[in-house]
Design brief:
Length: 279
């Protein structure tokens, strides 16, 4: 199991000198390697000697390393990894998880609250256009619970305003085959609020494009619902597990407007757009 590092790996020298010989128990060496950065383990340490190389191509070590780095590889994902016949791919996945190269458990949306204006977003303006406020006007401050670094938020107008961001998973190292093996849960969320003096609505639509199929999920919010307090911030969130095989593209769209057709920027305020692939 797991006896190849993949193409491009330099031949390991047979330099059995001193500490490289197998007099140090495997468990001790693995414990030491847990404190070594993944980049060094992959590019340098594995080439020191055949003994270290053999230890560092064992799946067992990388499962332990993943746990030590705070990544929870589910039993189902572990089973799929162990069933995969492409050993070089499995090793690349495990090393990618441990080294955080696969961008798992992190927000894939760039500029999620408008700190950089509309950078990374495709915007379709309606009414008096979408704007970015650095402090929400007419609503409460964004709560600490949101975990956002600033008070920036997008604000919509009296006609439908849309902002779109497309995430190409292959461009960040998450090939469709890797997603199929790991099957991470997709956590979608957004913080939303209305002004105290004007009702508004907001919708998040996420499209998942696979090798052959695509599907949509959506979340809807309106400030005129009985349980909504005007000016308060709310978290829209959903966890998606049923997405197409061979997932390549995630398209995130936010659609909002005010419900009273007031000139200006009285529509929904949104911040912290988030898409995370979570193990």
């Amino acid at each position: 199991m797991g006896n190849t590092l993949g193409s491009g790996t330099a031949e390991v020298p047979d330099n059995r000198i001193g500490f490289c010989v197998e007099v140090i128990p495997q468990e001790v060496m693995e414990h030491i390697f847990l404190y070594v950065p993944v980049k060094d383990l992959v590019t340098s340490v594995t080439r020191v000697c055949k003994y270290w190389h053999r230890l560092l191509i064992e799946y067992r070590f990388w499962f332990i390393k993943a746990q030590a780095e705070g990544f929870n590889v589910s039993a189902a994902a572990k089973e799929r990894l162990l069933e995969e016949t492409n050993e070089a791919l499995v090793l690349r996945i495990l090393q990618g998880i441990c080294g955080d190269y696969l961008h798992l458990n992190t927000n894939l949306i760039l500029n999620p609250s408008g700190q950089e204006g509309f950078k990374h977003w495709t915007v379709k303006h309606g009414g008096d256009k979408i704007i970015v406020e650095d402090v929400p006007a007419g609503s409460d401050p964004i709560p600490d619970e949101a975990g956002l670094p600033t008070q920036h938020c997008f604000v919509t107008s009296y006609s439908t305003c849309i902002r779109i961001q497309v995430i190409n998973l292959e461009s960040i190292g998450l090939d469709p085959q890797i997603v199929d093996i790991l099957k991470p849960k997709v956590h979608i969320s957004e913080w939303v609020s209305a002004r105290w003096d004007c009702h508004s609505e907001n919708q998040v639509i996420v499209e998942f494009r696979g090798a052959e199929n695509r599907n949509l999920v959506s979340m809807n919010w309106s400030s005129d619902k009985d349980d909504v307090i005007g000016s308060k911030w709310y978290k829209m969130e959903k966890v998606v597990v049923d997405y197409p095989r061979g997932l390549k593209i995630i398209k995130y769209s936010n659609v909002g407007k005010d419900r009273q057709f007031w000139a200006g920027h009285y529509g929904a305020k949104t911040a912290g757009s988030s898409v995370k692939l979570v193990l």
